[in-house]
């Protein structure tokens, strides 16, 4: 898949945009134009939904085993094209190549896992429910939602799409996928490869373009039964409103401002490693980034010193730089707008009185062009500061100290967000108490950021509703039908008691 697909993918073929317009896709490492992408509109969404609706019944009536066979072939096709896909992902998302390659491995695993769930679904069909009355037999059947609209972000272009696409396909849904306008290419690759692998035309359609021109109409389209969205809280609120008007099923994975609590009984180097991985992986552009560090005051000086030392060894690199075992890399921020947003938060932190431990601007070694931000750590942060309260979505860590478990937990939970969280401690009973007390959909213990397609992923509070991944994510694309049958040879006898003979009607 060396070619950049610039058109929509609708009904099994590449289709140019109705309006004939294209968007520039910028390489964030040097600000050059990497390629073009179709600027979709309402008319393109209508065509994609029509194709999905046409294909929906036939695909939905296949068995789970039949779907699993095709889904596994999709995984195989992606694996064969892993190197080229990884390079595209690295360039358009600005992440180091080894990180992009790891993402593609997760994509492959996601399709394989959902193939297994599709097969298991066949065994669940027609399961009998004990209703407590032998006169009735009640069975449950699991049916696909129908046409679903999937809207995904730019930070994990193919992986975020795969989380939703693989589950929806396994459930038997037909799909209209809307990728980010900043990183559309590998979503198109996914659809193209799926079609080559035997997926019937119209089952997976991709429309690219700006959100207001495409995603907004997809959310309100009367033939779309469910919308699954990953992105900002502000946009997620709009999607939810649109789905409410149409009484659509909706799932939302939104923003985060995740805490990481570090107690004084940890190994310093181990803790610093996880602190850094939690905020600098994928250039800090992760919804679950543990961007709020709560550290016990007894070890704060040692942790800060080690954190500064190791953070300053991270090397800004062109995303295609080969992996080195003796170095850690960081890439550019995805776009100019996002770069300016991150820089504005760094400036706000300085203006509000936070202390820059390291970073705080462009890296000294970065090229003149490109959207580069140095890994940044703020200390002396207070709970009222913007950098503590608001999602930055960049490599910026805000640090506070605490003296007790109660204080740490209160500070951690004092947030609008509830997506990810982490606790590092050598005390098992303490870890269990903190994990239970954290108000978040995901809690990491003695680590930060591991993610597995087998486990549900999502948040509480304003971080969203519903889950991706795991059986919960798969089930979100299914609707349950109850079939209850009267099996007794006796009469029901409610209005006509047994033995009752109705008198003949008078003429």
Structure notes:
The protein is α/β, with parallel strands linked by helices. The protein contains 15 helices and 22 strands. It has a seven-stranded mixed sheet, sandwiched between helices. It has a six-stranded mixed sheet with strand order 9-8-7-10-11-21, with helices on both faces. A hairpin with a 2-residue loop joins strand 1 (8-10) and strand 2 (13-15). It starts with 7 loop residues before the first strand and ends in a 21-residue tail after the last strand. The relative contact order is 0.14.
Radius of gyration: 26 Å
Shape from CA axes?
globular
Spatially, the strands of the biggest sheet line up as 16-17-18-13-12-19-20
Could you report the average pLDDT, rounded to the nearest whole number? 96
Q: Write down how many β-strands occur, each being a DSSP E stretch of 2 or more residues.
A: 22
Write the layout of secondary structure elements.
Layout: E1 8-10, E2 13-15, E3 22-26, E4 33-38, H1 42-60, H2 64-80, H3 82-93, H4 97-124, E5 127-129, E6 136-144, E7 147-151, H5 157-171, E8 174-178, H6 185-196, E9 204-206, H7 215-220, E10 226-230, H8 233-246, E11 249-253, E12 259-262, H9 268-280, E13 292-296, H10 300-311, E14 315-316, E15 329-330, H11 336-351, E16 355-358, E17 376-379, H12 386-389, E18 396-402, H13 405-413, E19 422-424, H14 428-437, E20 444-445, E21 464-465, H15 470-475, E22 478-486
Parallel strand pairs: 7-8, 7-10, 8-9, 10-11, 12-13, 12-19, 13-18, 14-15, 17-18, 19-20
Antiparallel strand pairs: 1-2, 3-4, 5-6, 6-22, 11-21, 16-17
Helix pairs in contact: 2-4, 2-5, 2-6, 3-4, 4-5, 5-6, 9-10
């Amino acid at each position: 898949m060396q070619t950049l697909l610039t058109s929509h993918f609708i009904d099994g073929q590449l289709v140019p945009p109705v309006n004939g317009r294209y968007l520039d896709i910028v390489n964030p490492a040097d600000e050059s134009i990497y390629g073009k992408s179709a600027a979709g509109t309402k008319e393109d969404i209508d065509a994609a939904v029509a194709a999905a609706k046409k294909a929906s019944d036939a695909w939905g009536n296949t068995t789970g085993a039949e779907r699993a066979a095709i889904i596994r072939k999709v995984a195989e096709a992606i694996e064969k094209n892993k190197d080229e896909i990884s390079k595209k992902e690295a360039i358009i998302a600005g992440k180091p190549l080894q990180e992009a390659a790891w993402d593609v491995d997760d994509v492959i695993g996601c399709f394989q896992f959902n193939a297994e769930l599709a097969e298991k679904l066949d065994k669940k069909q027609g399961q009998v429910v004990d209703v407590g009355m032998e006169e009735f037999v009640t069975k449950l059947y699991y049916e696909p939602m129908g046409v679903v609209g999937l809207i995904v972000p730019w930070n994990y272009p193919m992986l975020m799409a795969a989380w939703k696409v693989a589950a929806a396909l396994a459930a038997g849904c037909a799909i209209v996928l809307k990728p980010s306008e900043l990183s559309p290419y590998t979503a198109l690759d996914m659809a193209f490869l799926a079609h080559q692998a035997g997926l019937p035309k119209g089952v997976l359609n991709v429309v690219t373009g700006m959100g207001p021109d495409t995603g907004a109409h997809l959310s309100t389209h009367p033939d779309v039964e469910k919308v699954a969205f990953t992105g900002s809280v502000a946009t997620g609120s709009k999607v939810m409103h649109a789905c409410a008007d149409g009484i659509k099923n909706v799932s939302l994975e939104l923003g985060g401002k995740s805490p990481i609590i570090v107690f004084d009984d940890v190994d310093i180097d181990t803790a610093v490693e996880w602190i850094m991985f939690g905020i600098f992986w994928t250039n800090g552009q992760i919804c679950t980034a543990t961007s709020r560090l709560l550290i016990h005051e007894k070890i704060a000086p040692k942790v800060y010193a080690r954190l500064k030392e190791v953070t300053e060894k991270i090397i800004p690199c062109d995303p295609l730089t080969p992996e080195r075992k003796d170095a850690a890399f960081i890439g550019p921020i995805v776009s100019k707008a996002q770069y300016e947003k991150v820089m504005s938060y760094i400036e706000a932190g300085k203006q509000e009185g936070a202390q820059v431990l390291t970073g705080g601007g462009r890296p000294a070694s970065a090229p003149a062009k490109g959207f580069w931000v140095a890994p940044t750590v703020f200390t002396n942060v207070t709970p009222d500061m913007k950098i503590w309260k608001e999602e930055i979505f960049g490599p910026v860590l805000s640090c506070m100290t605490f003296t007790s478990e109660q204080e740490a937990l209160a500070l951690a939970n004092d947030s609008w967000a509830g997506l990810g969280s982490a606790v590092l401690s050598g005390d098992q009973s303490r870890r269990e108490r903190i994990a239970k007390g954290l108000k978040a959909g995901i809690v990491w213990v003695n680590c930060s950021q591991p993610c597995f397609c087998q486990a549900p992923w999502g948040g509480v509070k304003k971080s969203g509703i519903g889950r991706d991944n795991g059986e919960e994510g798969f089930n979100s694309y299914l609707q349950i039908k109850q079939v209850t049958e009267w099996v007794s040879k006796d009469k029901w006898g409610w209005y006509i008691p047994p033995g009752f003979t109705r008198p003949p009607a008078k003429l």
